[in-house]
Design goal:
β3, α9 and β4 form a beta-alpha-beta unit. The protein is α+β, with helices and mostly antiparallel strands. The radius of gyration is 22 Å and the shape is elongated. It has 9 helices and 5 strands.
């Protein structure tokens, strides 16, 4: 039988440890234990945190994609605790988004990836975004065009061009994510890229790149000679 956290030495209890030594001194399981708040008769909150991490192979990115139903599969974690954990993970994702500073000028595909990776890498559904640029490749604005399911999203080329004209953009970069982690462009990815490029040519609005984002990497159409 596992000891309750209250049976531990004070300096080893997650809350006290955080107060005395700072949050960076805690393991991932200990941080989760603070959110879980209390254990069961035979397991501590840290044990529950370890079990929760175990179902995602200790991968925090994968943890951020779990649903409340997924989290509740751990015996001892009910709806209230699962909601607390899900809310905390969402706050972490939003913090990453808030820390993103729009690059004033796009010089490479990495500049684009740095903007969109925090926005898209943790999502379990696809989203399609546009980056609007002036003649100096400086960012005018960005917007989410559409949101879909696990396997795709709908992109309307007319709306892409309409928004580009509204922003008086000279160039655009489009970006979407693949929740599956597979960075290879699909046939539909290639077709929509070609359609946007051709429509842009008619409007004198250049499609500079199309990025596909995954958890840890990205694919650039321009870098791979497909534009």
């Amino acid at each position: 039988m596992s000891l309750k956290i209250t049976d531990w030495a004070v300096e080893d209890r997650p809350r006290e440890k955080l107060i005395q030594k700072g949050s960076s001194s805690l393991s991932d399981a200990e941080l989760l234990a603070i959110l879980i708040n209390s254990g069961t008769k035979d397991r501590s909150a840290v044990d529950l945190g370890r079990e929760l991490l175990g179902i995602v192979n200790n991968n925090l990115n994968s943890l951020g994609k779990l649903t409340i139903a997924d989290i509740k599969k751990i015996r001892g974690i009910g709806t209230a605790r699962a909601v607390t954990i899900a809310a905390s993970l969402e706050l972490g994702r939003r913090r990453k988004m808030a820390e993103v500073q729009v690059v004033p000028q796009i010089r490479s595909s990495k500049d684009v990836a740095d903007i969109f990776q925090p926005l898209l890498s943790d999502l379990v559904h696809e989203e399609f975004w546009i980056l609007f640029l002036n003649r100096s490749n400086k960012v005018i604005n960005r917007m989410k065009l559409s949101q879909g399911g696990i396997s795709g999203t709908v992109t309307d080329v007319r709306i892409v061009m309409k928004k580009a004209i509204e922003y008086l953009a000279s160039g655009i970069i489009v970006c979407h994510n693949h929740p599956s982690g597979n960075l290879n462009p699909s046939e539909s990815d290639s077709k929509i890229t070609q359609k946007i490029k051709e429509a842009g040519n008619l409007m004198d609005i250049q499609l500079l790149d199309h990025l596909i984002i995954s958890d840890k990497d990205y694919y650039s159409f321009a870098d791979n000679g497909l534009l």
